[in-house]
Design brief:
By secondary structure, the protein is mainly α. The chain has six helices and no strands. Helix 2 runs antiparallel to helix 6 and helix 5 packs antiparallel against helix 6. The longest helix has 25 residues, at about 10-35. It starts with 9 loop residues before the first helix and ends with a helix.
Length: about 160
């Protein structure tokens, strides 16, 4: 599924975040099956479970979104920025095509690290759209994504 934002909508962004986590779960499960390295396979299984938890976390956040008014230099600036984040996210491309490009454990780890990095950049923007009392949830999710990068890097 390719995502395009025609207008700025918090619920649409939550939907995208949940979809990213679903694709992440599928991606990590596929890597776990594809990978010959037992340690890497175990980590990919763990990461798939983490992505499943994140889906629930973002769904709950979607219920609490506040109205968001971005500070802009020109009208539509923030929408253009968010659109570029959405369109450039790794999982805005076909997952099977990505998986076909992975032939080694190191390739799998590199793609996984890129997924986590893309997600962190995107999730940072969510902090602007939730109440201050809910921002800690996103900060915790970002922290988990950072830990994922550390674990993946340790496998290299």
């Amino acid at each position: 599924m390719v995502w395009h934002l025609s207008k700025f909508s918090g619920s649409e962004l939550i939907e995208f975040a949940v979809e990213v986590e679903k694709k992440g779960e599928k991606f990590y499960n596929s890597l776990a099956e594809k990978c010959d390295d037992d340690k890497a396979s175990e980590l990919f299984q763990f990461l798939a479970k983490e992505e499943a938890k994140h889906q629930l976390d973002f769904s709950k956040l979607g219920e609490k979104l506040k109205e968001f008014n971005a500070r802009e230099s020109f009208e539509g600036e923030y929408l253009e920025y968010v659109q570029s984040l959405v369109s450039s996210h790794m999982f805005n491309r076909d997952l099977d095509t990505i998986l076909d490009k992975i032939s080694t454990t190191e390739d799998a780890i590199d793609f996984a690290i890129n997924f986590e990095k893309d997600s962190i950049v995107f999730f940072i923007e969510f902090k602007n759209m939730v109440n201050a009392s809910e921002a800690h949830v996103i900060e915790e999710l970002i922290g988990e994504e950072r830990k994922h990068i550390k674990k993946l890097t340790a496998l290299k």
